[in-house]
Amino acid sequence: MQKLSQEEKVNALTNFLRTISKNEELFIYSVNLGKNTKFCVAQKSEPSGVNPKSNFMTYEEMNCYFYGVLAVKENRVNF
Question: Reduced to 3 states, what is the DSSP secondary structure of residue 40?
Answer without folding.
Answer: strand
